[in-house]
Amino acid sequence: MAKRATIGDVAATAGVSTATVSRVLNGGTVAAATAARVWDAVARLEYTPNALTKSIFAGHSSTIGVVIDDLSSPFYLDLIRGIDEVAAANDSLVMFASTFRQADREVAQVRAMDEQRVRGLIVTTGEATDGRTRRMAEGGTPCVIIARTVEDPPSGMHSISLDNLQAGRLAAAHLVECGRSSVGVLISQNRSSQSRPSQTERTAGLRHGLAERGLPLPEGAVATATTESDVGDAIDSLLAHVRDSGKPLDAIVCMTGRLTVAAHSALAARGITIPDDIAFLTMDEFAWAATLGITVIAQPSYLMGRRAAELVVERPTTPVQLVFEATLLARTSCGEQHTGLR
């Protein structure tokens, strides 16, 4: 196996010092003839600069670190695309890591990004990583928290989130317009039995929106699931609660796109027809939503990803907190809309 060429090999071939080679590779001022000899040696030897060594001298790499919860959620696909496009346009690569919603992995992945001296960090992790990201921001590495806000952020620490209360109100308004009055909610929780703040806020918005129209959302009408395999039991608990209350369930709102397929499948497995028996509304647009006629509350995840990467590149010192609005994509899964209701 041929040995990888080193900067010393390039210097010897070009007849210059390694310092001169370094200056040429990093765009420093060097005589044109000397630079030409260096680039000729680089080409002949097929020399590839050591990115790790460059990052050590620069104090950071050109890589943007991205740590996300779970690749199974449709929210992340466009988010990643937005991040990657901005990174590519600014001579950066993107290093992705998924934590599978495990707090210990979140901490480990963020620590690894810090150790790699990434150009900036974008995370959708929980509060367990806030201590490390705060220190990174204070040390000069721009950090962007996505899907939630952070209290008293230091310089260089930013957040991008959805107006979750508005998203919940959108769901309430649409369901009532479709003639629905007995709503159940499905939310996800992590392995520590903690619900996501974003989903809690969406549920609060839904509750407020229903209350404004004279409809309740009892605590027992909210069920949780940790994994897709738990969704069937959660659906059963919703059906049982509402049955015991004497008012048949006529709508289910899934507050996370990650559980959409499992919830839809669980209803079908129980012989429940959408929308004739129960209306179904979920978060986050996905490829088959229109084909299946599923109404969704869409997040502008592509724009959120782009803006997050732009904050890394632009490096504003004053903390930026951006809140995006959700959009209702009405299809057939909630039934026909009616005018003049409430």
Automatic annotation (TrEMBL):
Superkingdom, natural source: Bacteria
Record keywords, A-Z: DNA-binding, Repressor, Transcription, Transcription regulation
Domain HTH lacI-type, first and last residues per copy: 5-58
GO terms of molecular function: DNA-binding transcription factor activity; transcription cis-regulatory region binding
Matches recorded under InterPro entries: HTH_LacI, Lambda_DNA-bd_dom_sf, Peripla_BP/Lac1_sug-bd_dom, Peripla_BP_I
Pfam families: LacI (PF00356), Peripla_BP_1 (PF00532)
KW DNA-binding (keyword) present: yes
CDD domains to which the protein is assigned, alphabetical: HTH_LacI, PBP1_LacI_sugar_binding-like
Name of the featured protein: LacI family transcriptional regulator
Species annotation: Actinoallomurus bryophytorum
